[in-house]
Amino acid sequence: MAEQLTDRADLSDLIAAGIRDIPDFPKPGITFKDITPLLGTPEALRAVVSAVAAYYGTDAVDAVVGLEARGFILGAPIALELDAGFVPVRKAGKLPARTLRESYDLEYGTATVEMHADAITPGSRVLIVDDVLATGGTARAAVELVRRAGGTVVGLSVLMELAFLQGRDQLTDVDVHALTVV
């Protein structure tokens, strides 16, 4: 059970056991961090959700922004645990109503993400959730979207930070919470 995982090293080990490397995906030279084994293990998923919720606490967050696509999977149960709303940030062209848009660079190209323009109530305290912090481009774009909507970013929480890509350098004005760092 998640309640038994009081030691950060135990949580890190549980996370590491649930992630597999897929070389040369989505293109040669990139090693994709696949979290589907972790998601398939209720103990690991519960531990991750509980650890993030415990770090922020239920009084600190009004909304959780989940980044497409794996940030959706983690962000929704974290939002429930925090008694907060959930807001998806999606790839361009996927949301049906008026959106705010932000483009960014990533390790293998460029991309654009969008959020519904009315998804964040001005003054809301917002936690951004994703699975991996790599170069920081997606997270930086989400921070900008939340701020443009009038929200206050209380933090970015990720399952895993790839420290060698220095994504944290893009987020010096944000509290970055990584459950494990590689």
Give an overview in words.
- This protein is an alpha/beta fold and 182 residues long.
- It has a seven-stranded mixed sheet with strand order 5-6-4-3-7-8-9, sandwiched between helices. Strands 1-2 form a two-stranded antiparallel sheet.
- It is built from five helices and nine strands, in the order H-E-E-H-H-E-H-E-E-E-E-H-E-E.
- The two termini are 24 Å apart.
- The model is unreliable at 1-6 (pLDDT under 50).
Provide the fold topology:
Elements: H1 8-17, E1 20-23, E2 31-34, H2 36-39, H3 42-56, E3 63-67, H4 70-81, E4 85-91, E5 99-106, E6 109-116, E7 125-133, H5 137-148, E8 152-161, E9 176-181
Parallel strand pairs: 3-4, 3-7, 7-8, 8-9
Antiparallel strand pairs: 1-2, 4-6, 5-6
Helix pairs in contact: 3-4
Highlighted features:
29% helix, two-stranded antiparallel ribbon, alpha/beta, disordered N terminus, 182 residues, seven-stranded mixed β-sheet, globular
SSE order in H/E notation? Answer: HEEHHEHEEEEHEE
**Fraction of residues in helix:** 25-40%
| Count, helices | 5
Average pLDDT, rounded to a whole number, is 93
Category by helix and strand content:
alpha/beta
The count of β-strands is 9
Largest pleated sheet: 7 strands, mixed
- Large-scale geometry: globular
First and last CA, distance: 24 Å
Neighbour order of strands in the largest sheet? 5-6-4-3-7-8-9
Regions with little confidence, pLDDT below 50 for 5+ residues: 1-6
The radius of gyration over CA amounts to: 16 Å
Beta percentage is: 25-35%
